[in-house]
Amino acid sequence: MITRLPELVKRYLAIAGAYGKSVPIASLEIPAGETERVFDFLDEDYHISRFFHFRDASAEGGETSFMINGFPQTHISIDPDVQAIL
C-alpha cells in the first residue's frame, strides 16, 4: 500500500530511471483500486498535481487504463521539481 508521496516517487524512479519519463501506470504495481484512489487524491492537490503528468494511450492498445478523477489514464511522468515537496 502506497501511503506517502516519497514512496510513490521512489517507485516511479525505479521504473523510469529518471524524472520526466513516461511510464505505464500499471508498471508501478499498485493494486488498481489503490492506484485510482491515490492518484485521485494527488491530482486534486494543486501543490502536488502540477508535478504529475498523465497520458491516455489506451487507443494505442496494450496498456491498462485507470480512471483518475473520471478520466482514463495509462501513463504517468513526474517532474524533477517534485523533490521540493518531498
Task: Write up this protein.
The two termini are 18 Å apart. The mean pLDDT is 94. The chain has 86 residues and is α+β, with helices and mostly antiparallel strands. It is 34% helix and 19% strand.
Could you say which structural class the secondary elements and strand pairing correspond to?
Answer: alpha+beta
> What would the average pLDDT be, to the nearest integer?
94
| Spatial extent as radius of gyration | 12 Å
Secondary-structure element sequence? HEHHEEEE
Instruction: Give the assembly state of these chains.
Output: single chain
Beta content comes to 15-25%
* Shape annotation: globular
Structural domains: how many? 1
Poorly predicted residue ranges: none
Measured as a percent range, the helix fraction is: 25-40%
Q: Let me know the largest β-sheet.
A: 3 strands, antiparallel
Task: Count up the helices.
Answer: 3
Strand elements, count: 5
- What strand line-up does the widest sheet have? 1-5-2
N-to-C span: 18 Å
